[in-house]
Amino acid sequence: MSESVSVTTDNTHTEEPSGISRYLPSWRPTSSSLFSQTENRLFKYVSTKIDSFYVKLGGSRIWTISTRPLETQTNRLPLVLLHGMGAGVGIWVQNIDGLSKDRQLIACDLLGFGRSSRPDFPHGVKEVEDTYVDSIEEWRSEVGVDKMILLGHSLGGYLATAYTLKYPERVSHLILADPWGFAERPDTIKPLPMKWKVVLGMLKPFNPFMGLRAAGPLGPKLVNKIRPDLKAKFSDHVKDEDAIVDYIYHCNAQHPSGEAAFTHLHLDRGFAVSPMVPRIHTLDPKVPITMIFGAQSWMDPTSGIRVEEIREGMAPVNVELILAAGHHVYADDPTQFNTLVNNACNMYDSEDVAVGS
């Protein structure tokens, strides 16, 4: 069952998730309490009332936020959000108010990320994928959601799809925001020069954000230097200009459990070991899909067209493009993103969509 820790965003007290040390080395300026405080700095800019709590899954816990459903929303399916690599529930700060007007919104920190537990994952793409899918299913059951509209960004899009492949009866509509891991690695891709193969081979055992943690007290400044665009993405909504930078730092300064898991899913140069395009035909034909891409993103939007072609004659696949957005479509143009998501939710809210409609 879920165990309430911080009932509203006004409460800064949180319990320590397993897998995150309460007393990290002093040279690395992060801790659970600092993480909690930083998240609350972001949620000050959300008008909608939020409940926040841990959901216990065996020896692990999943950090969860949920809006309170209104009487007018009782006939609407809840919208569940899954974040991408190196992020957490705080990234939705510009979307929560807009996406919770018509329905309950629930988001969680994926296992190994954010404020959730950071256990050691098994090795192997199937084992990691199964661990995530099963944790999402167990979390869904504990939260008490029977059926949902499921939205995932980037890595969260990959995992949302993997979940829907296994549990289609729980998903009324799959919404993918610039999803990672769909396109197949081309056979004709230019091979890397030997020196880069050697370098990448040496880096393989290391996790993506290792440098951030190794920077110690310079870590927050490093986030600022590497991602100077972060403040701009959130500046219209979040007036505390350092809050999002500090939040991303704390998301990635902890034990790199989720990062290590990702290395088993990732092939090279942005491709997945087990991409979704070749598997998408096995998804229940009654589940509609909406794919929202950023026109300026490094993700290939043509994978959306491929999904549309593969699923011809099944439930609709709608591919949308946000011209002014990059990979972080939810933050680059939150107004248009929220509108597209709300339209998609309202179109396929509760009834199964007829095949071929």
Question: Can you give a write-up of this model?
Answer:
- By secondary structure, the chain is of the alpha/beta class.
- It has a single domain, classed as Alpha/Beta hydrolase fold, catalytic domain (Rossmann fold), CATH 3.40.50.
- The protein is built from 13 helices and nine strands.
- Strand 8, helix 11 and strand 9 form a beta-alpha-beta unit.
- The radius of gyration is 19 Å and the shape is globular.
List the helices and strands and how they pair.
Elements: E1 2-6, H1 32-43, E2 50-57, E3 60-67, E4 79-82, H2 96-99, E5 105-108, H3 125-143, E6 148-153, H4 155-166, E7 171-177, H5 194-203, H6 210-214, H7 219-226, H8 229-234, H9 243-253, H10 257-265, E8 289-294, H11 302-310, E9 317-322, H12 329-332, H13 334-347
Parallel strand pairs: 4-5, 4-6, 6-7, 7-8, 8-9
Antiparallel strand pairs: 1-2, 2-3, 3-5
Helix pairs in contact: 1-9, 3-4, 3-10, 7-9
Oligomer: single chain
Q: Which radius of gyration do the C-alpha atoms yield?
A: 19 Å
Q: Which structural class best describes the helix and strand composition?
A: alpha/beta
Q: Compute the separation of the termini in Å.
A: 39 Å
Q: How many domains make up the coordinates?
A: 1
Q: What is the annotated CATH architecture? A: 3-Layer(aba) Sandwich
CATH class: Alpha Beta
Percentage of residues in DSSP E strands: 15-25%
Which spans of ≥5 residues are poorly predicted at pLDDT below 50? 1-26, 195-206, 351-357
User: In what order do the strands lie side by side in the largest sheet?
Assistant: 1-2-3-5-4-6-7-8-9
Number of helices: 13
The pLDDT mean sits at: 85
**Largest sheet entry:** 9 strands, mixed
State the CATH superfamily name.
Alpha/Beta hydrolase fold, catalytic domain
